[in-house]
Amino acid sequence: MNAKTIIKTLESFATPERKKINKWFFKTGKGQYSEHDAFMGVRMPQIRQVAKQCFKSLAFNEINKLINHPIHEVRHCGLIILVNQYQLDNQDAVFNYYIDNIHAVNNWDLVDTTAPQIVGNHLYQHQEKLPLLFNFLHSPDLWERRIAIVATWTFIKRGEFTPTLKIAKLLLGDKHDLIHKAIGWMLREIYKKDADICKTFLRKNYPQLPRTTLRYAIERMPKSERLHYLKKEF
User: Fold this and answer.
1) What residue spans of 55-176 are helical by DSSP H?
2) pTM over 0.85
3) In whole angstroms, what is the distance from residue 184 CA to residue 149 CA?
4) Selection from 180, 123, 129, 178 nearest residue 153 by Cα
5) Using 50, 70 and 90 to split pLDDT, how confident is the model at 89?
6) What architecture is domain 1-110?
7) Domain extents for the chain?
8) What is the pLDDT of residue 217?
9) Which residue of 27, 168, 178, 184 has the fewest CB atoms within a 10 Å radius of its CB?
10) Residue 43: which residues within 8 A CB-CB, separation 6 or more?
């Protein structure tokens, strides 16, 4: 299978109804974060299905055609193919290719379904490369900054919270809502592993916490405790 066949297969799943939903869900209105993105109308399970069917034999030159395609779902399929290849074998090559083509990871779903699986896993195994995330968090590119925090989910799953907490603190002044949400999400994941560590971070950094970050971070708390944190009663 090649890129052309993959695109045609994705097109066979596309519907006008799903295209309309995707355009609304990913905020393609004027001035919104996906204003310049284009959608064909394919659901995520179908994207994963297509990627699973072809990832073993697809070379990087064919993946190039997918991840540089103007259609969102095509790019997503190419990136999921990379995740599948990384999990199968040849991890160094896939990681390097992903980093070299980071421009293609240009929406929140593309970040969230690939950064922990490729960047996070690779950096967990090669922690001398962790400075890469700190480079990303200073990037003018929104998606690279989101990669910096979301990639640390892999560390959280393994009980290592320091990279997440350091990056979260440095990103607290970010102006974008999608970064506020990502920080809160990662703090909530820490809370699920060690509630006290999450609470300590929230208390120490409360004056700088975006409200969205706080709300995401405290979702798993009992209702009475959530209300205390919303009112800074701790």
Assistant:
1) 60-67, 72-88, 91-100, 108-112, 121-125, 131-137, 142-150, 153-157, 162-171
2) yes
3) 10
4) 123
5) confident
6) Alpha Horseshoe (1.25)
7) 1-110, 114-234
8) 98
9) 27
10) 13, 18
